[in-house]
Write a structure and sequence with these properties.
Length: 331
Amino acid sequence: MILKKRDKSLYLLKLESVMDRLSEKNPKYRLASSEFLKHQAGYRGEMAVDYYLSFLSMSEYHIFNGIRLKDSLGRFFQIDTLLVTPWYYLILEIKNIIGDLEFCYKQNQLIRTYEDKVDRMECPITQAKRQRAQLHDWLSKHNFPIMTIEYQVIIANNHARLINADKYVYEKVSRHSNIHNLTGSFEKKYSGKVFTDKDLKRLSKLILKQDTPLATSPLTQLKIEPFEIEKGVQCPSCKKIPMERARKFWFCRQCQFSSATAHIHVIRDYALLMGDTISNKELRSFLQLNSRSVAAKILTSQNLPILGTTRNRKYLLIKNNKLLIQASSNA
Ligand SMILES: [Zn+2]
């Protein structure tokens, strides 16, 4: 059973907004674009893994995707996928990387060679092993039954090839299409049932309650200043900014498209890039809209929590690092 479904991370959503609102002429555009493509590939790799996870017995495998918890020393740890079974836990560290991959775990390095270019990154085996230690700490702190925590690096790219791998690497790294064999071998290894339905219910509740998505902004990471972010309503059809307000619609001069709801996406971009709250004035500035009453109507129609009194009223857009405004229909 999927107890936490996979969503795009808040960071990836923010990067999408950056890509929509950063001019291609901006010198930081290339860096932003490569950061976006990296995170998008990661998400696509995770979704490719979800397909293979769907073949597991849903009554015995409980799946939590993209969780971020805090250990007893206050350090966060993030797990791409956590599988909880009655017999063991399994952490999956998912990598969607193309090319020849050499896992130098003793030096804590993954060396990737692709088209004559060499990249070095932290060894995902070491990453997963660290997640195991932190998960163990978290589970003991909350008095959950002690079961073995297995960990595995999952390669979600068919164009990746392991090179110079030893027995340990083959043991700790699998292809996504091999997940079923992997869990089968663990089931043989761990046959005694430790986890009860009651444990599972408590675990599920606690994970979902304590899950804290990363709040970091790509603007900080990429050193992009707020003034570099383009304001205005983006055309859902041709992506041009800004659309113009005409009666009750937004109109695009570029492609003649009109939309009654294109502003919802803008409020979402504001939440992702500018701040957790928005005032009428801030909305007007970001929408490039003159009318205070239209802005008020737009804000009240979103049913957002309100902070402050009438004069300095603000609308809450993000709470506990989660977006309160949902994706628009783009219509
Ligand atoms: Zn357009």
